[in-house]
Amino acid sequence: xxxxxxxxxxxxxxxxxxxxxxxxxxxxxxxxxxxxxxxxxxxxxxxxxxxxxxxxxxxxxxxxxxxxxxxxxxxxxxxxxxxxxxxxxxxxxxxxxxxxxxxxxxxxxxxxxxxxxxxxxxxxxxxxxxxxxxxxxxxxxxxxxxxxxxxxxxxxxxxxxxxxxxxxxxxxxxxxxxxxxxxxxxxxxxxxxxxxxxxxxxxxxxxxxxxxxxxxxxxxxxxxxxxxxxxxxxxxxxxxxxxxxxxxxxxxxxxxxxxxxxxxxxx
Length: 267
Prior knowledge:
This protein is α+β, with helices and mostly antiparallel strands and 267 residues long. It has one domain. The chain has eight helices and 16 strands. The strands form seven sheets. Strands 7-8-9 form a three-stranded antiparallel β-sheet. Helix 4 crosses helix 5.
């Protein structure tokens, strides 16, 4: 059974600024995620509780490192479980587009869904080998065409809509996911930076505040990802997914789903 969680989210802060001719209307800004507690704090996360900065990052790496890997072909069936549409058990929910699509329509043709690497494969050149290339904590189902549009773009705000976008946007150097999954994307990217530190034969993956990272081991933009983490807290879909990956497949968790406030504590 999924572990019980107690969450206390701060209300959105209102900022106002005065100008010579009057007062600007209040603008909504995200506040850092409030502290959470989980049933794993005294066991799984025991060595991390109370730490911040590099000490917290190092402790979390030790906790989530060495997970059980699966093959790239096994990812197909795993995603049919982890990303099952809660309103239709015959379908999966596509990440960027939000479309519910039949589980049987997995493949590489137009109208199919395929395996999207949220941390783009070329950002570290890890391909689809067992390890970062098959890590379910950043693999999600997506429409083939939408997946191709995202490509290896870094994440940032702004851009234009496209067919089946679901509210996602893109431009020449960045991709903005729909509002409902912005936090999901942020927590997946930051999970990868903690899990892969270059000590197990895979690249040391790191966030930065840039776009156009291309074939480097960096992914951006960190400032935007931090804001998305605050604006879009973990929901039941994301939490269920984390539980299933932990219990059924990899034996490790995404700590930023359990403790989204750790994003600010580290970065």
